[in-house]
Amino acid sequence: MNNLNNSSTEGFWLFLIGLLAWWSYDSGYGSCDEYASEYSCGYVVDRADYEVFYWENLQAQNAEDERAIGRVVGLRECKNVAMRHAALIREVWNERAYICVLVDDGAFVEKHRLL
Length: 115
Description:
With 115 residues, the protein is α+β, with helices and mostly antiparallel strands. It has one domain (31-112). The protein contains 3 helices and 4 strands, in the order ααββαββ. The protein has helices spanning 2-27, 41-47, 75-88; strands spanning 49-55, 66-73, 98-104, 107-112. Strand 3 (98-104) and strand 4 form a beta hairpin.
């Protein structure tokens, strides 16, 4: 009977650790080293709200050329919006020309690009 209790206890703790790991990844809470973020990686990549900024004529380095071009969910969609905008204005795509600004509770909190 003692082995059964140890096995059940071990199984419970493994389940609990797995549940906490999943919750940390999926909930938005936690941190993400890959993106140097206070939020979880799953949240940053797939579920966060972003304001998309694009810097037209990047080579000129004129800050007045940077402007918001949309609001999206997720880094993939952020990059897609920026790429469509570059095509629309007939600019050659440049990874440095866009930035995704994470919006949390109405405030700009972090800047990211899709890695």
